[in-house]
Amino acid sequence: MHRQALLISLLLFLCGPFVTGARGQETRQPNITASLVAESSTPKAGSTVSVAILMQPKDGWHGYWKTPGDAGFPNEFNWTLPQGASVAPLRYPVPQRFLTNKLMNHVFYGDYALLTTVSIPAGLSMGSRLPLRIKARWLACTDRICVPEDAEFGAVLTVGDGQITTQSRARFDSWRQKLARPLGSDAAFAVSGNDVRLSIALPPSVDILGAWFFAETENAMSYNAPQKLTRQGDVVIVESVKPNFGFRMPDQLNGVLALKNGMGLELTAKPGAVAGQGGGQGWITILFSLGGAILGGLILNIMPCVFPIISLKALSLAKAGGDEQAARGDALAYTAGVILTCLALGGALLALRAGGVAVGWAFQLQDPRVILFLLLLSTAITLNLSGLFALSGFAGGDALAGKGGRVGSFWTGVLAAFVATPCTGPFMAAALGAALVLPVAAALAIFAGLGLGLALPFLAIAYIPALRARIPKPGGWMMTFQRWMAVPMALTSAALFWLLWRQTGQSGLMIATAVVVILALLLVVARKQRPFGLGLGSLLAGLVLLSAAASPILPKAGSNTALALAGAVPFSEAKLAAFRAGGRPVFLYFTADWCVSCKVNEKVAIDRAEVTASFKAKNAVIMVGDWSNGDPVISRFLESKGRSGVPLYLWYPKGTTEPEVLPQILTVSVLTGLQAGPDSE
């Protein structure tokens, strides 16, 4: 099928001129109209001018990316320029996928513009004409037919003052925003058997929901093969297969990682190590990861949000005394609740990642609504442990000596595993990171191992009589112990308050505070109505309803991009000119959420106390340009500095006309050693 499609495309390409010629002088409207547009019709001599090849398909028709995919052929553009002029390579927007008859094509729907810059020769006099001509060939298709088309078109510019109208600027800015942006970070690829794996450095803040890698290097990946995207820390792993024919091991793999909202990152990958590749190490990796998960789950038992639950449940085991069968039954029920919950959370995590979502363990903490629910849950447990109300089948004190049984133990295990997610720490990163690149069965085994580690102390108490014998017998001291356990749970609530504030700001914090107060009042009323305890199921149902009622008015999580230094100002060319005119030095840097090297520089060099003090002593302004969403104003500024991507670090000393371009890898000494101006010592 693949070969047939390529053969048909080739025949169409070769026969296109003859088909056109057979129609004689018949005038026909092209299915894709092409034209050349310049941002300025009067560019300055010795400068550059942005131009766009504007492609406008009819309704139902589409054009192709520079690498068309399984079928089609690339566009051809042959330029005729004035003597001394030159043109840069074309830059394409982020393509879309078109799948038909198991063939994947890389296409554009609707109008699209291919951008480049033309360098104007120096020394030309004002009013000189600059004719630009293009002879082009392309393929226009619908979901049923394809037609090769060709045309000659161009524009005539006049050497002038380089002015750009507001309308033209806005038009080109809208096209710039659709271009794929240079990633600026390392990428690697490896081939093992029939698998192609690609490793892309990308911060966890970047959402990879629905992401797709468009390979520009031909015959390096099967275009129509499914792609699996997973995340391991600051790295995204793209897995696919190589083509069944024509495969060659390229020296480098070029392409675009398309993200949501039409955003794309242009990258070049070199041969190298990719996480999780190779089969010989599989079982060793799984066993080490499983051991790490069990150890991580064991350590979770002493974390503030889990310890009160498991310690009180352990005391309920102690009440079984010599009834070994009852103790073991409760322990197994608790273990089943823990492991099943870990498997459910792990399965949901793997399913989301299979869909391209950038999530990790405790992924639910990225959603303020889930944070609110966990906050209400931890608050309810705190109030329960402090004696405000009784939670039957769970609490300490009298309830520990009362009813509950194996059903209560099971739901206690569910609760312990669920509330453990905010307490996960660095000691679990390796095991869980490995789970995200292992096969599903192995990954689920690691999540089950995490649950087993969490349940191990409970199992040990149940199955080792000597340990159970060392636990003091039930008595009045248990109520005191229960009250003390309210303290770490209250700290967990405080941490969730802080996290919600960081995500939603002051308004979110006020809403959460109001909801917590309402919860406390409702629990007081429930205690009067049900003095012998509130069922765990009833409590959870109430918490879900309360958090669901508050969720619509809860603000969404804010942007992950923040100004790294205190007092930093957002980039503006007008502000930059004003600060320079006022004689103040300016440190200007451009960053993006998806730029790993940007984030590393911010952490290790820019956001440091000594750097802040140094800039303050120089009376310097720190200005930040956030290019996360492809701000066209920043795009133009980067182009004016000969850059197409970030990071870019500029230092403007006072009294100078041109900035000093700093290295892309910063150190504290580089920033503190900057001179404020010509009169600096």
Can you give a write-up of this model?
There is one protein chain. This protein is of the alpha+beta class and 681 residues long. It is built from 18 helices and 25 strands. Strands 11, 12, 13, 14, 15, 16, 17 and 18 form an eight-stranded mixed β-sheet that branches. A five-stranded mixed β-sheet has the order 21-23-22-24-25, covered by helices on one side. A hairpin with a 2-residue loop joins strand 6 (96-100) and strand 7. The N and C termini lie far apart (72 Å). Mean pLDDT is 78; it is low at 1-27, 356-360, 393-404 and 558-564.
Query: Which oligomerization state do the chains in this entry correspond to?
Result: single chain
Helix content: 40-55%
How many strand units?
Answer: 25
Strand content: 15-25%
The N- to C-terminal Cα distance equals 72 Å
Kindly state the mean pLDDT as a whole number?
A: 78
Q: Which spans have pLDDT < 50 for at least 5 consecutive residues?
A: 1-27, 356-360, 393-404, 558-564
Shape: globular
